Amino acid sequence: MGTGLATSFNELVAVLNDVMGMNLEPEYFEMPYDSSTYQSDTQADMTQAEKALGWKAQCNLKERIKETIGLY
Fold first, then answer.
1. Does pTM top 0.70 for this prediction?
2. CATH code: domain of residue 18
3. Label partner for 32 (CA 20 to 30 A): which of 44, 52, 70, 71?
């Protein structure tokens, strides 16, 4: 499942830093895959889940990360 909202790598790093009280910088490297065979952007289409199941995401990425980290 997804939320239907795209999240960039940099946004994910920012959320993780915020939740964990850190200030880590992402380490970038050259793309090791051929761009014609690698899907660099993905985003869940939640249309069918909403229609068939009446399901819609109830919280955002930051809330879920906080909850998950809290379990550890």
1. yes
2. 3.90.25.10
3. 44
Quote the CA–CA distance of 32 and 13 in Å, as a whole number.
Answer: 21
Maximum CA pair distance of the chain? 41
**What confidence tens digit (pLDDT) does each residue in 33-62 have?**
887 888 778 888 889 989 999 988 887 888
User: What DSSP state is assigned to residue 37?
Assistant: T
Distance CA 20, CA 41 (A): 26
Question: In this structure, what DSSP letter does residue 45 have?
Answer: -
Query: Is residue 55 in a domain?
Result: yes
How many domains does the chain fold into? 1
